[in-house]
């Protein structure tokens, strides 16, 4: 892991890194040290926007987490930012737009082609990032995953044993295989749902929440659209990680 | 309002009262005074159990609220404790048991006969209690309602303008007229749902949440049955009242 840049502001150290061609950012509270290592939250992002466009929101989440004594890491998703496009993605997006414009429900195979290549490539990239970050002496081996594409969050929650709690955001398309994978998830979950999310099928989000195998899971639904998550929902998600990572 | 008893313990003053034959309890933080009056939370209860059987849980809620600087009041519901039974209630309960034993869904008219007489009598009793409590100089005119029979919570949220925020517990039968009344509710709501509640129709609870007219409403669903509400859900409900009553 090559750190290319380091900035210190407001009690947080921000370090840019690159790992196997994947750029990322690590934020740690200044208090983090080898003798007082801090838990780590892997901050997911929506697909397609890119990490630089998401930077202000990621920084806000990192600051919020740092106030509770957590480090936060983000990486550029495959096909986002300056990374090469994923094969077949232009076609999948065109098929999606066509279905939405026609007022049709999005066919399952389009959802699969839109989401699964991203999940299949991003999950091992997150795992490689985690391998590297856990070698830093100031990072404790208590890890949560938060937000982003819910199919990717589900894949990581189901298959990466070092992740011990996950915050999810019901707001993207859900492949059929994700519904099956959800039944194998057993870690504590905190799922946000925006009740009037224009890009989200509410019933599918409720079905996915129901499918998760976790004995401890909380659904928090608020009014408003995809970007209208109220501040108190961020506080509640933070409280969830405090309960499970500290 | 006649206060019949007063006990002081753990920083809380507990006073028993009676108003028009309805017994009640008021808990105030010792810090409450005419110069520093405290907001008031009206603590609802499930029907039928009676205030004395509910006392330990009510006291726990009052202590939790007092820690945030709130007073809490509870009153005996019509037909509960030592109060006379509501007319027709034995028949309605027998019809309910018969439907449940037969594995049938409970007919709408049985729900109406079971819930509406309680709501129709309890709502004005809560309002008379509120009239009296708001005359106490240590009680501020910032009032929330929390818990109990959700049809009663909906009636009060819809019709009592002095209640400015309501916490609700989706866990009882919902008359059809309550669904209609819900559309007229506009105050902020915090609705708890136990996902596997054996005495609750999950879809009806979601439909009722959807029906509320409030621009600000949050649904918090947790795993487990009716009595399995996790401690963090109590904290989140408390945070809701802190946001709206302080």
From TrEMBL, chains A, B:
InterPro entries assigned to the protein according to its UniProt record, in alphabetical order: AB_hydrolase_fold (IPR029058)
Gene3D superfamilies linked to this entry: alpha/beta hydrolase
Superkingdom of origin: Bacteria
Protein name, entry field: Alpha/beta hydrolase
